[in-house]
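Discussion board: Methods & Data

I've been asked by a reviewer to show the raw model output for two of the constructs in my manuscript, not just the figures. I'm not sure how much to include, so I'm pasting the format here to get opinions. Each protein appears as its amino acid sequence followed by a line of discrete structure tokens. Is this the kind of thing reviewers expect to see in a supplement, or should I convert it first? Here is construct A:
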Amino acid sequence: MEKWEYIIAIVGYTQTNEPKIKAVDGKEIANWKTVPFRHALRILGEDGWELVTASGPDAYGNTHDPTYVFKRPWLGASYDFNSFLMRLDTMKGT
């Protein structure tokens, strides 16, 4: 049976209403308001993650930051969050 690894990404919005990556796997992104969510999606996709589900504000008026759950086959070691952050940092101007 295949084993899976999961991470959760939290998205926040700036005053321009552009989605920005706020946290990944419980670790907040420093200066998150400068990191477009599309950059995080690109890196996660390159690393083999696929979107499982997403949630946001509901029809009853409950609001929270949108949450995205990703999975990939277990590779035998935890995801290298520091590498993710360094790669995000190199993409800021793109």
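Construct B, same format:
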Amino acid sequence: MAKTSNKKMTFEQALGELEKIVEQVEEGKIGLEDSIDQYAQGMQLIKHCRDILEQAEKRIEVINKQAQAAPPPDQAEEG
């Protein structure tokens, strides 16, 4: 697995790496020690993905609040 910093990974990249880890562990392609290392890496990837999703959720909330605060397009034209 590439040792790219999790913070530089996109959500899709991190998810792809996580899928590779799961596949390797499930298929028994790696030994116990490597499985433990991969588990630790997987947990870091999960945290990274959750952080990205939380940021996206906050952005969506801001967008929704802005949309609700703006007057409807037909009322803005009349004013």
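Answer (T.O., handling editor elsewhere):
This is acceptable in a supplement if you add a one-line summary per construct. For B, something like: Residues 10-69 form a domain with the Helix Hairpins fold (CATH 1.10.287.1040).
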